[in-house]
Design goal:
By secondary structure, this protein is of the alpha/beta class. It has a domain of 94 residues. The chain has 15 helices and 5 strands. Helix 4 packs across helix 6, helix 6 packs across helix 14 and helix 10 runs antiparallel to helix 11. The N and C termini lie far apart (77 Å).
Length: 479
């Protein structure tokens, strides 16, 4: 509303009451405009925050980040050409010892530069030979073994009994090592059924179909039933474990993939959703310190048995730092706290002095708790800033359990790394198609990740497992 001078003089001449009413109306209008501007500022801040969202300041995966600017072409920052420099000593392959060599082929010179022609081995070798080793695959092909159950005529009764094939032989048309290789290609290497069929035919000369691959995966899943249940007991009985969850799809419907991890064991389970009741069932009877993010489904855990992830906190503080006024200050204080926490943890990793770690962490608590408490009051206008500060104070004891307990780290990176393979599998396969498929992939992913954590051959384990399953013997343990 724009008031001309003539209109302002007319209002003034109308008397005191009219002037007061006009001023009050203008004040109400200013308040409305200020509120409108505040809403617009908040909206703009939300849009900017969404635009600047990355793996550094949110839980978005690094693969979702915008590509980095293309590197400058030509010479590097020091003015030199890219790649190895002239005169740089190369790094060749080390020669294997003689005991690792399968075949030695001698090569002899045929003629000299002077024109002399050598006939066979008429001279003894001079000096040491130049050695060049070539590593090659042998011709790969499956061995087809035909088992014939013969009949004989009994001279006593005239019957014709037939030989009985063992359970191990009749369990499948494929041997345990071939089955193990196909399971490894499907689960660890995340190759589709159709591609596994093609690879099996090209690499091994095996006659396969997509139905055969499904049958082999189902057989491996059944064989894993007992080791899978033992894994859950191992994880629950640990002194410290990491827990995380991510989305999943079954026949296009939303599901959740939960993971529990120790230093040597991994347990996966697919459930209907990511609600608290599933976390309670998975973590039932455990007395471990559980490292998690701040997802609400873990709130039933006592704070003394929970460690919150500082990497997640660092990303949240980084997002606040990109805000304005009080929110920016809050983010800066939080990032400084994270830097000091990670520095203390790195010092502990180098020195293994837990007493010093506890002293440092105690001092950090005394310094930063009052600072965070200030932002939890109503004084800062930013609700996001105040909400995070309040939540941190409520969960304050769960921020520091890593300083007092062995095997507990300040981050949940172990769980996120262990989940990464399952997430890639989900993206490539688009999840599962049935409840049976959920159970199958949970067991196979558990075996795959556990073998990786133990630096154990998944192929060798599956070969032993499928052999024992065919014979009816106890399954080899994953513990």
């Amino acid at each position: 509303m724009c008031v001309e001078r003539v209109e302002a003089e007319a209002i003034y001449d109308a008397g005191r009451e009219v002037v007061v009413e006009v001023l009050l109306a203008m004040d109400r209008r200013i308040e409305q405009l200020e509120a409108h501007v505040a809403r617009q500022d908040e909206r703009i801040a939300q849009l900017e925050r969404r635009l600047n969202r990355s793996s550094r300041n949110s839980s978005a995966p690094p693969s979702s980040d915008a590509p980095a600017p293309a590197a400058r072409r030509g010479k590097g920052s020091l003015g030199r050409d890219r790649g190895g420099q002239a005169g740089h000593e190369g790094h060749g392959r080390d020669l294997l010892p003689a005991c690792a060599v399968d075949e030695v082929i001698e090569h002899w010179p045929e003629r000299c530069d002077c024109g002399h022609v050598f006939c066979g081995r008429e001279h003894d070798p001079v000096g040491e030979p130049v050695v060049h080793q070539v590593e090659e695959l042998p011709a790969l092909t499956v061995r087809v073994i035909e088992h014939r159950a013969q009949r004989l005529c009994c001279p006593a009764c005239g019957g014709e009994p037939r030989a009985q094939l063992s359970r191990e032989l009749t369990a499948s048309c494929f041997g345990p090592r071939l089955q193990a290789a196909l399971v490894v290609l499907s689960v660890r290497n995340r190759i589709s059924r159709r591609d596994v069929v093609e690879l099996g035919e090209e690499l091994f000369g095996a006659r396969l179909s997509t139905g055969s691959i499904d049958a082999i995966l189902s057989r491996a899943s059944r064989a894993l039933q007992e080791p899978y249940e033992d894994l859950l007991g191992q994880v629950r009985g640990a002194g410290a474990l990491n827990a995380d969850e991510t989305g999943w799809r079954t026949a296009g419907e939303r599901r959740a993939l939960w993971g529990l991890f120790t230093a040597r064991h991994a347990f996966f389970q697919i459930t209907r959703d990511r609600h608290e009741d599933h976390a309670k069932r998975l973590l039932a009877n455990t007395h471990a310190i559980v490292t998690t993010d701040r997802w609400w489904a873990y709130r039933s855990l006592p704070l003394r048995r929970r460690q919150l992830c500082w990497s997640h906190l660092k990303r949240d503080f980084a997002a606040h730092e990109e805000g304005l006024a009080a929110e920016k200050e809050f983010g800066e204080h939080g990032l400084e706290l994270c830097r000091e926490v990670f520095a203390a943890w790195q010092t502990f990793q180098d020195t293994e002095d837990r007493r010093q770690l506890k002293r440092t962490i105690t001092q950090l608590q005394r310094t930063y708790k009052p600072i965070i408490a200030v932002y939890a009051t109503k004084r800062p206008r930013n609700k996001r800033c105040r909400g995070m500060a309040k939540n941190l104070l409520k969960a304050w004891p769960a921020l520091w359990n890593f300083a007092a307990h062995d095997g507990v780290a300040p981050t949940n990176n172990h769980a996120e790394r262990a989940l990464r393979g399952a997430v890639i599998y989900r993206k490539l396969s688009l999840g599962t198609q049935s409840a049976g498929g959920e159970q199958r992939i949970a067991r196979l992913l558990s075996a795959h990740t556990t073998c990786r954590l133990q630096r154990r051959s998944l192929f060798n384990y599956l070969s032993e497992l499928l052999t024992a399953h065919a014979r009816g013997d106890p399954a080899p343990s994953l513990a």
